């Protein structure tokens, strides 16, 4: 019977070593899973919320006519025209930021861009449209998180911008506060 139940190692010690190794492998698997979940794309961790401009403190708003503007934020979130859902669309390449659509919760319409010089010289028109699959609705979300993000038109680097009067448009990216947005109040 020596070697089965003795304290010299035998069968009991090898079972304990194997059990310890199994626990270690399970713990490493859980840790690896947590790392992969935290590195998942925007669609997995971003829900609908207000989009507040850093410089003005006003929130992106729209109506069923497709007009886009900013108004004082409704912190209660009852004004559903101020709620926007970023929808993950992928990446142009692995080193680029997430490509997203910005969909209005109330209207179901997506933020899009129009022509340059309308409605005012030296800025591009922003509106919403019902066809969210149209390519002019994609924006790259530049920033480390959703507390300070710039929405950049892919490939030409124009940014979603606004002013204190409530106008929303796109301009050349300049890293100013009028081009930075926060998801949430």
Task: Give the key terms.
single chain, 185 residues, alpha+beta, 6-stranded antiparallel sheet, 4-stranded antiparallel sheet
What does this structure look like?
The protein is of the alpha+beta class and 185 residues long. The chain has one helix and twelve strands; from the N terminus they run αββββββββββββ. It has one helix at 10-38, and strands at 49-53, 58-62, 68-72, 83-90, 99-104, 110-116, 124-129, 138-142, 150-152, 158-162, 168-172, 181-183. Strands 9-8-5-4-1-12 form a six-stranded antiparallel β-sheet, with no helix packed on it. It is globular and about 35 Å long. Residues 1-17 and 24-44 have low confidence and may be disordered.
SSE map:
Layout lengths: L9 H29 L10 E5 L4 E5 L5 E5 L10 E8 L8 E6 L5 E7 L7 E6 L8 E5 L7 E3 L5 E5 L5 E5 L8 E3 L2
Antiparallel strand pairs: 1-4, 1-12, 2-3, 4-5, 5-8, 6-7, 7-11, 8-9, 10-11
SS-based class: alpha+beta
Q: Give the termini distance in whole angstroms.
A: 71 Å
Q: What's the overall geometry?
A: globular
Radius of gyration: 25 Å
- Share of helix among residues? 10-25%
SSE arrangement, N to C: HEEEEEEEEEEEE
Which percent band covers the strand fraction?
25-35%
In total, the number of strands is 12
Unreliable spans are 1-17, 24-44
Largest sheet: 6 strands, antiparallel
Summarize the structure.
This protein is α+β, with helices and mostly antiparallel strands and 185 residues long. Helices cover 16% and strands 34% of the residues. It is built from one helix and twelve strands.
